[in-house]
Write a structure and sequence with these properties.
single chain; alpha+beta; 4-stranded antiparallel β-sheet; about 475 residues; rod-shaped; about 55% helix
Length: about 475
């Protein structure tokens, strides 16, 4: 509304200015015609001789200051005619003389150059006077041009290149002249734009105030939505971490229940396996706590890592032994193809383990309910300098549009009608950050409804 109001004020002011200039130019043109006519009549009167009367008339000299009675007395001295007849004859004679004067004026004025008919100083004075009478006191430049547009004369600062910029006004001089001899007066106002802006200076403070209020309003709305999002994220975080903690706790609980079985206690191999599961799940609980701490450092500082050389095959095998119970609980299979001959990498073992756990856990979360889960972890030497780790599954897959953003922080892939998948979009962001911190790279390949592959490449450490 402020912008529309300002626009209307400027347009109204511009229209008033235009109308004032047009009235002034029209008045200048009319004044030049009157001045030319008066000057011609004055010159004609000065050049005329006093008439000599005939033998039947008397010469009468009448003072210009005499009144109408003296004029009537003078005309009454003429013999042979009544005073009415003498007045009619004199009127007819004077009218014929006036017609001759007008015809002579038209003929002579058309033959004079425009410089003599409209002197530049006279035009300038008339313009100043007429513009001031219409309330316009802006500085101006002007030029007189012929009908072909050629400049007859102009002021020093008049720029013919600015004729069509909207600040130049045109008026015909002596419009009664023939078309071939018509000249035009062009007036340019270099400060017109400033004049229009100056006319709305009263509105500028209110516009600034409106902009400030608008910015504050938008900022308030943004802050409100951020607070709402942070609240939702906090609730999702609590729910997600509760779910993350439940998984290792349930594994430990399951292992503890198995220890109550006498047949299990009698098998040293089974006892060793169960104790290993309990130990690994305890580590995982510690990993989850560390993960929360590391996620809080994403935007603040570089993650604190304890890099050490580890055998990726050995670490991944331990993860698989621990995670198998969870996969089998859902009726799936977890296969390992650890074929890398050189698998020594420099990583933080805790975070590297957590990376593999996250990817395996995602495969279980986004499994296809219609068929048994087939989960495979493989390692291979892709070159003399890099180890490749591939985690693939036959789950629900990921759409191409989502595939581009799955590693973005807080981004979550839509799971359609499934409501059992909890989280807040930090898992894969954490995975990517850790892999990058290890000097590696990760990317994903997926086909909707068929499979998903996560491919990790890490630099090898030569021993």
């Amino acid at each position: 509304m402020q912008l529309i109001y300002t626009k209307n004020v400027v347009e109204l002011r511009d229209e008033q200015f235009t109308q004032g200039v047009k009235r002034s130019l029209n008045a200048v043109s009319h004044s030049l015609e009157l001045t030319e006519t008066k000057q011609y009549l004055l010159n004609d009167m000065l050049q005329s001789d006093m008439p000599v009367m005939g033998s039947n008339s008397f010469t009468v000299v009448i003072d210009d200051d005499d009144d109408d009675d003296n004029a009537f007395s003078a005309m009454s001295l003429l013999p042979g005619k009544s005073w009415r007849e003498r007045i009619r004859d004199q009127y007819t004679y004077k009218r014929a003389l006036l017609d001759e004067v007008v015809l002579s004026l038209i003929s002579q004025s058309n033959s004079l150059p425009i410089q003599e008919r409209a002197d530049s100083a006279l035009v300038s004075d008339m313009l100043k006077t007429e513009l001031a009478s219409n309330g316009i006191t802006l500085p101006f430049e002007f030029a007189v041009v012929n009908r072909m547009g050629a400049v007859v004369y102009k002021t020093h600062n008049y720029n013919t290149a600015l004729d069509n910029d909207g600040n130049t006004f045109v008026q015909a001089l002596f419009p009664s002249d023939s078309r071939a001899r018509v000249n035009y007066l062009k007036v340019y106002f270099p400060d017109k734009r400033d004049y229009l802006i100056h006319s709305i200076k009263v509105i500028i403070p209110s516009m600034i105030l409106t902009v400030i209020l608008l910015v504050m309003f938008i900022y308030t709305i943004i802050v409100a939505f951020r607070q709402k999002k942070l609240t939702e994220m906090k609730n999702d975080f609590i729910n997600n971490m509760t779910h993350e903690f439940k998984t290792p706790i349930s594994s430990i609980s399951l292992a503890a229940q198995m220890l109550n079985d006498n047949s299990v206690r009698k098998s040293p191999k089974m006892l060793e396996h169960i104790s290993g599961v309990i130990n690994d799940e305890t580590k995982r609980l510690r990993f989850q706590v560390e993960k929360v701490l590391q996620m809080s450092m994403f935007n603040n500082q570089k993650a604190t890592l304890r890099l050490q050389e580890v055998d990726a095959n050995s670490v991944i095998q331990g993860i698989i032994n621990t995670f198998k119970l969870k996969v089998e609980r859902y009726g799936g299979q977890l296969n390992a193809r650890l074929d890398a001959e050189d698998a020594i990498i420099a990583v933080d073992e805790m975070h590297f383990t957590n990376v593999i756990f996250n990817l395996l856990d995602n495969a279980v979360k986004y499994r296809d309910e219609e068929r048994p889960l087939q989960l495979t972890v493989s390692t291979a030497d892709v070159s003399d300098s890099h180890l490749q780790i591939v985690i693939s599954d036959n789950g629900i897959g990921i759409r191409k549009d989502d595939l581009k953003r799955i590693f973005d922080k807080f981004y979550r892939v839509s799971t359609g009608n499934r409501h059992d998948v909890k989280g807040f979009g930090l898992g894969l962001a954490y995975v990517k950050k850790m892999v990058n911190e290890f000097g590696g790279d990760i990317n994903a390949e997926s086909e909707l409804g068929k499979e998903t592959k996560f491919i990790i490449k890490l630099p090898l450490t030569k021993i």
